[in-house]
Amino acid sequence: MRRRLRIGLLSSGDELREPGQTLLAGQIYNANRYCIGALLRGLGFEVHDEEVLADELVASRDALSLAASEWDALVTSGGVSVGEEDHLKRAIAELGEVNLWRLAIQPGKPFAFGSVAGKPWLGLPGNPAAALVTALLVARPFLLRQQGLFDVVPRPLALPAAFDWPQPRARRQYLRARLDERGRVEIHPQQGSAMLLAASWADGLAVIECGATLGVGDAIDFLPFSALMA
To answer: Domain for residue 152, yes or no?
Structure first.
């Protein structure tokens, strides 16, 4: 019998504030701390909510080193995009290695993976919708496998689309979607990676492959949240 995987959860960014605090120009609420933390706890992991990493190399490196000495795996959000103040990848590289950076998906392109002092590190994007999608599609199955489970990738449902998608995209799309009264897949009109509103409205993710187009009634893959959060 295995013990529960212990996960250190860290957010990155000087702009982050807690809900209830007054926001100044350029500041945002730390939605990922609560959204990703709740998801991981719901999957049965022991989640340890760590400090917010400052946008400074030495401070980030010290906090990551301490977290890696205490927990089985690290999950961070933010700090993996291209930016002068994003020191996270450099800190990871000094403590371990960055094995992967960027996926051909939308949202979620800046996802990163590597290790810190021998412990797995999963770097989620900072934008909340992108963090949620990569947590569901990448972090969830990886961590469940680390926990000793094997059947961790849910099979999508092939359902008719209630919308047109006339313009092909270069990356695989994961659209926040739900089923209408006729059992067709409809998508929220706001699909920006910074918007959690669409996720709270949705029942799952509609998947459109790179370069694909579709029309109303065409079959589309649908991943229910009920399967992705189990």
So the answer is: no
